[in-house]
Every structure is written in structure tokens, then in C-alpha cells.
Design brief:
Helix content: over 70%
Number of helices: 3
Radius of gyration: 17 Å
Order of helices and strands: HHH
């Protein structure tokens, strides 16, 4: 950090930095996902609750990743709302992968204690790879304009 500007001179964040913090974000989102599913299942059921829990988890990862995981400087000139909508749209593809794995797990292992929570974990892992690539290269990619010092 420079004292005058309050910004970092470290340059773009490395892919290892991004993978680490994306993983941390994913663990936090998994907790959000499970908590919302647990709270909403009595009213929305296993499948409706899972849709709500996914949206809450995706929102939490967007907020975390835009601040911590990906370089916040030099981004494309999107408004906050446009970035959020683009992020949810992109994550929805990973969400389909995630939800499909969840449904398959829940249907195949209904006798496993805590099967819905295990299903959330399995779904989260299934969508992780796609979500990282789309976040890094589509949503949070830096603009092509050079940075000013």
C-alpha cells in the first residue's frame, strides 16, 4: 500500500491467490447455503429451499469475491448492479451443475443421515470449477486499459 493513494502496488492478483480466496469464499457460501436450506425447507421443501439457498450463497460469493479474491482495480466499466446480474447469470450455469448434482445425490441417498446437507456439499464441489473460470475470465477480468500509477 502506498501512503498517498491507499492502493496496492502489488499488481494483478496471482491465480494461486485467486484460487485460495475463491475456495475460502466457497466454504463460506457452503455455510450460507446449508443454513438457508435448513431454515427454508419447512416452507419451501427440499427443492424450493435449495433454489433460495443457492441464490443467497451466490450473492455472498459475489460480495466476497469482488472485494477479496479478484483485483478490484482496472475492472471493466460495469455498474455494481450490472456486475451482480452478470455474476448471477454466469453462476447460474454453475448453479445448474450444482443443483443437478444435489438432486441426484438427494434422490440416490435418501437414507443417509443429513443427506440434504451432503447433497449441498456435493453440488458445491460439482459447480466449483465452472464458477471459478467464469468468475475469473468473464465477470472479474480486468479491463484492457492500462492502469495509471
Amino acid at each position: 500500500m502506498t501512503a498517498e493513494s491507499g492502493t496496492s502496488n502489488a499488481g494483478p492478483r496471482s491465480i494461486l491467490h485467486q484460487l485460495f480466496w475463491f475456495g475460502v469464499s466457497g466454504v463460506l457460501a457452503l455455510l450460507v447455503d446449508m443454513a438457508v436450506l435448513w431454515l427454508s425447507t419447512p416452507w419451501l421443501g427440499l427443492y424450493g429451499g435449495r433454489v433460495l439457498s443457492f441464490v443467497c450463497a451466490a450473492t455472498s460469493t459475489w460480495a466476497f469475491n469482488r472485494r477479496k479474491t479478484f483485483d478490484p482495480t482496472g475492472r471493466q466499466g460495469k455498474t455494481l448492479a450490472a456486475e451482480y446480474i452478470a455474476y448471477l447469470g454466469s453462476m447460474s450455469v454453475g448453479g445448474v451443475i450444482n443443483y443437478s448434482a444435489y438432486v441426484a445425490f438427494v434422490r440416490h441417498f435418501p437414507d443417509l443421515q443429513g443427506y440434504a446437507m451432503w447433497g449441498v456439499a456435493v453440488g458445491s464441489l460439482a459447480g466449483l470449477g465452472f464458477n471459478f473460470v467464469s468468475a475469473r475470465f468473464l465477470i472479474f477480468r480486468p479491463s484492457s486499459k492500462p492502469r495509471r500509477s
